[in-house]
């Protein structure tokens, strides 16, 4: 299991590094940038260090040992990795590490952006949750919780910027597409 977990995370990291290098040469110029927010990667690295400092025995109460939990985790990890890479590819040169508007910026509402408004974050949180389940929870529980907090902070900055850039279009988009959890909006509509 850990080999598959490592491959998924390494693949996403490689795509991000190569994409950032490509974007540094080819992406349109940044016209406007949201105020600096905590880095998701930096926050997760800090959380990872905390999980290494706290003794393994302290995490044992959070361990799950059922094989079926690990299989579900692996399925979530693999599908979330594919979704994350699809979303990153869909943004292409419009992707940036911090919320920003680029020259000739367009609101993306197709591909993975038809499923959630923030598919990269959906995918990354799914990867964290899938990894946590695949390895039996434990210290990964902290990283999943930290990931949720960091993503919500970053989403707040992005949505504020998108609302300013596309006041009418983004409001319509928000009404029709869920923020992070696919099917959340459709389930809510079905209950009405």
Structural class: mainly alpha
Indicate the percent of residues in helices: 55-70%
- Please name the CATH topology: Four Helix Bundle (Hemerythrin (Met), subunit A)
Shape: globular
Largest sheet: 2 strands, antiparallel
Q: What is the name of the CATH class? A: Mainly Alpha
Low-pLDDT residue intervals, each spanning 5 or more residues? none
Number of domains: 1
CATH architecture: Up-down Bundle
Number of helices: 8
Mean pLDDT: 84
Number of strands: 2
SSE pattern: HEHHHEHHHH
Going across the biggest sheet, name each strand in turn. 1-2
Rg from Cα:
18 Å
Percent strand: under 5%
- Termini gap: 41 Å
Question: Care to describe what's here?
Answer:
By secondary structure, the protein is mostly helical. It has one domain: Four Helix Bundle (Hemerythrin (Met), subunit A). It has 8 helices and 2 strands. The chain has helices at about 1-25, 40-55, 55-60, 65-90, 120-135, 140-165, 165-175, 185-190, and strands at about 30-35, 100. It has a two-stranded antiparallel ribbon. Helix 6 packs across helix 7 (about 165-175). The mean pLDDT is about 85.
């Amino acid at each position: 299991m850990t080999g598959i977990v490592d491959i998924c995370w390494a693949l996403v990291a490689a795509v991000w590094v190569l994409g950032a290098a490509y974007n540094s040469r080819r992406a349109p110029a940044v016209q406007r940038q949201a105020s600096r927010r905590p880095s998701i990667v930096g926050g997760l690295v800090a959380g990872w260090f905390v999980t290494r400092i706290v003794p393994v025995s302290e995490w044992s109460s959070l361990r799950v040992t059922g094989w079926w939990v690990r299989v579900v985790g692996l399925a979530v990890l693999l599908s979330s990795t594919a979704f994350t890479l699809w979303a990153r590819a869909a943004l292409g040169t419009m992707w940036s590490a911090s919320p920003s508007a680029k020259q000739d910026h367009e609101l993306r509402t197709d591909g993975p952006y038809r499923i959630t408004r923030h598919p990269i974050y959906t995918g990354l949180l799914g990867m964290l949750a899938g990894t946590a389940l695949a390895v039996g929870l434990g210290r990964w529980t902290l990283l999943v919780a930290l990931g949720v907090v960091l993503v919500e902070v970053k989403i707040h900055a992005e949505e504020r910027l998108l609302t300013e850039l596309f006041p009418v279009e983004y409001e319509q988009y928000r009404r029709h597409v869920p923020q992070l959890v696919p099917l959340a909006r459709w389930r809510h509509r079905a209950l009405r």
